[in-house]
Design goal:
The chain is of the alpha+beta class and about 425 residues long. The chain folds into 2 domains: about 140 residues, Immunoglobulin-like (Sandwich), CATH 2.60.40; about 230 residues, no CATH class. Helix content is about 20%, strand content about 30%. The chain has 9 helices and 23 strands. Strands 8, 11, 12, 15, 16, 17, 18, 19, 22 and 23 form a 10-stranded mixed beta sheet that branches. The chain has a 4-stranded antiparallel beta sheet with strand order 1-2-3-5, with no helix packed on it. Strands 4-6-7 form a 3-stranded antiparallel beta sheet. A hairpin with a 6-residue loop joins strand 15 and strand 16. Helix 1 runs antiparallel to helix 8 and helix 3 packs antiparallel against helix 4. The radius of gyration is 23 Å and the shape is globular.
């Protein structure tokens, strides 16, 4: 039976305490969506994209689109090719909103004149096909609302040809628990400290030499096992994660705590719920992502730390993944509550591996030795006292921009026989 009253009171009290010392409001955003566009190019075709925040969309459209769960994404296509291209809106969102539908929603019971005015306004702002040779076309596609980050897929088709661009973009107005300038910059380490591995056996040895587990802040106690390696970055790994429904976590500020209380009381999901800090390389996680279930009690979440390694010039992230299955009282956190993890952490690791196979960006899978094995008969224990059991392997997932089918995914040839390396550990659970 889950203790409910004490965690609820503790979280509520903590929320009011934090409300008086919040560092800043999460409402600030960069001026102008065009200042943060993400661009990609292939041949003579260049694309650019920027999702709008709630305040930006209100400013551009004159109505609060975000209150209806609508988020415009600005798209620009420069066509230097010799064929006309058509943008496929379902690539951005299979359930995208036509401008006329959104206009009808906001016109409501107003006059037909009001509806006509909105129809004209929204239609003028929309992206219009085709993009003729030598032309540049821009406009908005209305998608479902995302906070923090948004994966933008731009698919262009022409006669007997197609071009696809995957863009990982940030949405302002969200207080994420990471700083993009730190997380996605290679300057986090001095250039001389970064090692680029091109030989698989050397890469394997380096991964196996990493610490077994995440730790507390001063490094005196081991916590959850480091059971994940992600190879890739903004062009491949993170678009793949976002495409498969992984969302960023929110910083532990007063507003986030209040959202947790509300979700707790209502029994609702909170797709950006904060996670506690674990430590590696002397710092807390650089990035945390999660997929929520039906309530705040349950989610699958991962933490990632950027390492000093590269694999064929791709960034290498060391991670920890586990599945939350409940909330319980604890004295180990400032809020006196914590998520209880599923002790079978290998299941969460295998589930992520299988999920990423459907992302179309996963190109290679492997496994290396990590933590000591902890069987069900003698489980390990994380920093908040939850038991876990594991075979001790950490899965290695390599991503690439080019689309890869299920049959095209390769495996590292690490080891043979019964040592399990080179396979998908935990996949038979």
């Amino acid at each position: 039976m889950r203790p409910i009253l004490f965690p609820l009171l503790a979280v509520t009290l903590t929320a009011f305490v934090l409300a008086g010392c919040a560092r800043h409001s999460p409402g600030a955003f960069e001026a102008g969506y065009r200042s943060r566009v993400v661009t990609r190019s292939e041949g003579g075709v260049q694309v650019a994209a920027a999702p709008l925040s709630a305040e930006e969309s209100r400013s551009v459209y004159g109505v609060a689109l975000a209150t209806k769960g609508v988020q415009p994404v600005w798209i620009e296509v420069h066509n230097g090719d010799d064929h006309s291209y058509f943008l496929l809106s379902p690539g951005l969102d299979p359930r995208f909103f036509p401008p006329s539908e959104v206009a009808e929603t906001f016109a409501g019971a107003e006059s037909q004149r009001t509806l006509a005015a909105l129809d004209v306004r929204f239609g003028e702002l929309a992206f219009h096909n085709p993009v003729a040779p030598g032309q540049t076309t821009s406009g908005f596609v209305m998608t479902h609302l995302d906070e923090g980050v948004k994966f933008v897929q731009i698919d262009l088709v022409a006669s007997q040809r197609a071009k696809a661009f995957s863009l990982f973009t940030e949405v302002p107005g969200f207080q994420a628990d990471y700083k993009a300038s730190r997380v996605f910059s290679r300057d986090i380490y001095p250039q001389g400290e970064v090692v680029n591995y091109t030989e698989d056996e050397a890469f394997r040895a380096a991964l196996e030499a990493l610490p077994c587990c995440a730790t507390n802040e001063d490094g005196t106690k081991n916590g959850d096992p480091l059971n994940l390696v992600v190879v890739g970055g903004l062009d491949d790994a993170f678009p793949a994660l976002v495409r498969r429904g992984w969302a960023p976590t929110e910083e532990k500020w007063s507003g986030a705590i209040m959202k947790m209380v509300k979700s707790f009381l209502a029994g609702e999901p909170y797709v950006n719920a904060p996670v506690s800090d674990l430590y590696l390389f002397g710092r807390p996680q650089d990035l945390a992502l999660q997929t929520a279930r039906d309530t705040i009690h349950e989610r699958n979440h991962l933490r990632l730390w950027l390492s000093r390694m590269r694999y064929h010039n791709k960034p290498v992230w060391i991670g920890q993944i586990s599945r939350d299955i409940g909330i319980r009282f604890t004295t180990h956190t400032p809020t006196f509550t914590t998520h209880k993890i599923d002790p079978d952490v290998d299941e969460a690791r295998a589930a992520l591996t299988e999920d990423m196979a459907y992302s179309e960006n996963l190109v290679k899978i492997g496994a290396v030795k990590g933590a000591d094995a902890a069987p069900q008969s003698a489980p390990g224990e994380n920093l908040t006292g939850d038991p876990y059991y594991t075979d001790g392997f950490r899965v290695v997932l390599v991503f690439d921009q080019r689309p890869t089918s299920l049959s095209g995914i390769a495996f590292f040839q690490w080891g043979t026989g019964n040592d399990g390396q080179g396979a998908i550990p935990g996949a038979d659970r």
